[in-house]
Amino acid sequence: MKLQQLKYLIAIADNNLSITNAAQKIFTSQPGISKQLRLLEDELQTKIFERNGKQLVGITQVGNEILGRARKVMQEISNIKRLSSELSQDDSGCFSIGTTQTQAQYVLPRTFAAFHKEYPNLKIDLQQGTTEQVIEQLRKQEIDFVIASGTAGLGPDIVQIPCYQWDRSILFPQDHELGDLRKITLEDVVKYPLVTYNLSDKNSSSLMRACKKEKLEPNIVFTARDADIIKTYVRKGFGVGIIANMAYDPQADKDLISYPTSDMLPQCTTWLAFHKNLFLKQYMKDFIAMFAPHISQQELIRYLYSEHTSSKELLSRFETKSHNPANLQARAATA
Question: Any coiled-coil ranges, and where (predicted)?
Answer without folding.
Answer: none
